[in-house]
Every structure is written in structure tokens, then in C-alpha cells.
Task: structure prediction
Amino acid sequence: MQNEAGADPEGRDLLEVWIDQDLCTGDGICAQYAPEVFELDIDGLAYVKSGDDELLQTPGATTPVPPTLLRDVADSAKECPGDCIHVRRVSDSVEVYGPDAA
Ligand code: SF4
Result:
């Protein structure tokens, strides 16, 4: 089987996630669902984390969605009261979970 760019070895689309802090309410639901990916900072807003646990605070910063955590990250996007968690395909930046998903 030939792997396409932007897909994992099983052929699943690689996904990434970012948070629009301007809309974050700071309730912490995302960090409860997926603490490996989301964390609240002392400013009371949620941020995505890098694979080595570093908070990524540049506006629009993305982090890869580990396939094992996809369900938790997708649920976070669905439940987010601020509608500000965006999960998109790496290959074409199309949003698959979040307020701008089809
Ligand atoms: S669930 Fe949404 S609104 Fe709540 S802390 Fe996370 S990003 Fe912010």
C-alpha cells in the first residue's frame, strides 16, 4: 500500500488542532477530555500542547492530534462552549471538527 502525504501508515488523515483564545471561556472542558493535548494557563485560557508537553501560546498555533486521542479531541471540539477548538486535516487545512466543519 502506498502512503499519501498527510496520512498515517494506516492511511488515516493526519489531523492537527488549534484554539482561538479570543473565544475561550476558560471552563476547562477540553483539558478534562484530553489533558495530553489541552491545558489552561495562568491567564485562564486554554492552549494546545506540543508532543513534549510545552504550552503553545502563539496565536493559531497547532499541534498534531495523536490518533489514539482523536475521539477525546473531537468530543472537546463538539462540547467546547466557546466554539473555539478547530480540528483540521494537515494535508489541505479543511476543518473536520469544530465550528467551521462542514
Ligand atoms: S472547552 Fe473551549 S472554551 Fe472551554 S477551556 Fe477549552 S477551548 Fe476554552
User: Anything to note?
Assistant: Residues 19, 24-30, 38, 46, 76, 80-82, 84-85 surround iron/sulfur cluster (CB under 6 Å).
